[in-house]
Amino acid sequence: MLALLLCAVLAVHADALDVRVPESPVVALFGTDVVLNCSFSGVSKFNLSDMSVFWQLSDTQRTVHSFSQSRDQLIEQEERFSNRTSLFPDQLPAGNASLLLRRVRVSDEGSYTCFVRVQTYGRGAMLMQVAAPFSKPLVTWGQESALKPGDAVALSCEAYGGYPEAQVLWQDGAGRNLTDNITISQVANEKGLFSVKSVLTVILEPNSTYSCRLIHPLLGEEGQASVTISGQALGFPPLALWLTVALAVCLLALLVALTVVCRRKIRESCEEMRAEEEAKELEEAKELEEAKSSAATPLKS
Ligand SMILES: *[C@@H]1O[C@H](CO)[C@@H](O)[C@H](O)[C@H]1NC(C)=O
Ligand SMILES: *[C@@H]1O[C@H](CO)[C@@H](O)[C@H](O)[C@H]1NC(C)=O
Ligand SMILES: *[C@@H]1O[C@H](CO)[C@@H](O)[C@H](O)[C@H]1NC(C)=O
Ligand SMILES: *[C@@H]1O[C@H](CO)[C@@H](O)[C@H](O)[C@H]1NC(C)=O
Ligand SMILES: *[C@@H]1O[C@H](CO)[C@@H](O)[C@H](O)[C@H]1NC(C)=O
Ligand SMILES: *[C@@H]1O[C@H](CO)[C@@H](O)[C@H](O)[C@H]1NC(C)=O
Ligand SMILES: *[C@@H]1O[C@H](CO)[C@@H](O)[C@H](O)[C@H]1NC(C)=O
């Protein structure tokens, strides 16, 4: 009983409320809900109607959320936070003034101050960082043809929809960093999410692999994509091409030969027919003549 009384007396006479917020930045995933922790202690027992909680943007002191007289007071709330914030009212008596922020946007990134007043007051500021993962990187090259050693090619590595900007590393098959002749561009869309495109210009070496690794500053390694160049100077595609050409030539030759043979056959059979016809005609003529001569001779002998 005495201890409790002492506590109450101490609390009342404390200079400031002990407000605690995370010391290291809180990383919130884009589009998800995040709880910005804020807890306070130093008051043993209080009437909810006697307390106020303000969440503000540290830089501008604009209102993110405010609570007083036992309820939310949102008239002064920044437009962009409307319908996206709430406290946990049932947790307030337990010293939990955390803020729930829904559907996190890129523009929400920044410093937030939690201000609590019960009899006395205290505050704490914390940093929130927004992170959005990139899509899996994709390596492409200009020409439609297959890649082969000796070609000068611009290999392009692209990924999109991430935040903040990513680091792109090009490496060879042995994991060595390629640093020359690389360009990178990162463009943000209307939501603030970046598309990243890095182009590596190289003369392709035989038996080599070129991989593009995407590194997210907050989420770490995000993915990689690579192309491998076949060892032979005449790789599979040229061989296939030659085979196709050879096959086509063979087919053509066969066709020509067939045509020639057929023509000859047709001509031969035609000649045969003609010969036969001639022979027939000759025979018929003979028969006719014979008939004539027999007609000349009287039938009745
Ligand atoms: C918020 O506080 C709770 C309870 O102390 C803890 O479990 C959680 O990890 C904290 N969240 C962050 C983002 O600090
Ligand atoms: C406050 O309460 C909410 C809801 O129960 C919880 O998610 C959060 O971790 C609590 N924070 C602290 C610091 O206890
Ligand atoms: C809390 O404050 C209200 C209004 O000031 C009062 O009516 C109520 O009795 C108080 N409750 C406690 C538990 O002190
Ligand atoms: C917030 O929600 C209310 C009711 O659902 C709606 O009328 C209002 O337009 C919403 N405001 C914003 C900015 O979305
Ligand atoms: C490649 O570069 C990255 C970033 O600059 C570095 O962390 C890594 O150690 C380098 N790797 C090699 C094999 O040099
Ligand atoms: C970079 O490009 C230049 C000019 O095109 C070329 O001379 C050089 O060899 C290239 N460097 C590498 C590492 O490919
Ligand atoms: C490429 O690799 C193949 C098999 O892995 C090997 O036979 C060939 O000698 C290599 N060529 C070069 C130029 O390293």
From TrEMBL:
It holds the Pfam family V-set. The keyword Oxidoreductase does not apply. Residues 281-292 have a biased composition (Basic and acidic residues). Residues 1-16 form the signal peptide. The keyword Membrane applies. Residues 31-116, 133-228 form the Ig-like domain. Keywords: Immunoglobulin domain, Membrane, Signal, Transmembrane, Transmembrane helix. GO terms for biological process: regulation of cytokine production; T cell receptor signaling pathway. Residues 281-301 are annotated as: Disordered. The chain crosses the membrane at residues 239-261. It is found in: Membrane. One of its GO terms (molecular function) is signaling receptor binding. GO terms for cellular component: external side of plasma membrane. This is CD276 antigen isoform X1. It comes from Carassius auratus. The gene is cd276.
